[in-house]
Amino acid sequence: MTSELFTIDGKRKYLTAEEQGRFITAANAHERAEVRTLCLTLAYTGCRISEALALTADRVDLPDKSITFQTLKQRGKVKYRSVPCPESLIDALELTHRIRKLKKTKRQASLPLWSWGRTQATKHVWAVMESADISGDHATPKGLRHGFGVRMAMQTRNPRLVQKLLGHTNLETTAIYMDLVGDEARAEVLGAW
Hints:
- The protein has helices spanning 17-29, 33-45, 49-53, 87-97, 99-102, 106-109, 118-131, 141-156, 159-166, 171-192, and strands at 60-61, 66-71, 79-84.
- It is mainly alpha-helical.
- The protein has one domain (3-192): Orthogonal Bundle (hpI Integrase, Chain A), CATH 1.10.443.10.
- A hairpin with a 7-residue loop joins strand 2 (66-71) and strand 3.
- Helix 2 packs antiparallel against helix 4 (87-97) and helix 8 crosses helix 10.
- The longest helix has 22 residues, at 171-192.
- The two termini are 22 Å apart.
């Protein structure tokens, strides 16, 4: 078992693909558009909650359908990474936050899209998790990030790409997702029987 993706008593810290689907459905059904876009950004990009809360309009590339995050946890280095996104997320960001309009003035383009702090944002994510009937140690913003890493490892089988998407400095950090691919593949095979 890969310890970083499991609690000390062996419980998962990541959302499965099925749980992520339920989370996305619940996020899309949420009454507040800003909560929808935050939750979808976390689910579709694997960013840290602080990286999402620091997101500005000038880092949303509408034509390229990607979001550029300032990567945190870089020990004083300023580093950015671009993450390709589904068109539905880009459209939701444009509709809710009026990205094109914000980009017209430098001051507005550099303001965060969400005005919440980490505590309030986390409460919003928990509420969406609850409405998606997801509970446990994995029902967190970090659980979304871990789930994204697991899915990217399974889909791409490319540790360097997963490292780039998650913004890891060290490939050893990314290896936890690559190690889990075998466990997840086994679970899928056993589920087919």
